Amino acid sequence: MKRLGILGSTGSIGTQTLDVVRKHKDKLKVELLSASKISDRLLKQIEEFKPRYVYIQSGEEIEGVKTFIGEDGLKEIVNLDIDLFINGIAGIAGIKPTYYLLEAGKNLATANKEAILCLGEISKDKYKNLFPIDSEHSAIFQCMLSGRKEDIDKIILTASGGPFLDLPLKKFHQITVEDALNHPKWKMGRKVSIDSATLMNKGLEVIEAHYLFDIPYEKIEVVIHPDSIIHGLIQFKDNSIIANISSPDMRIPISYAISYPERWENGSRKLDLTEVAFLRFFKPDYKKFPLLKLAYEVGKLGGAYPTVLTVADEFAVNLFLKGKIKFIDIHKLIKSVLEKVSFSSPRNLEEILEIIKKTEILVKELIKNL
Ligand code: MN3
Question: Which fold has domain 2-132?
Answer without folding.
Answer: Rossmann fold (3.40.50)
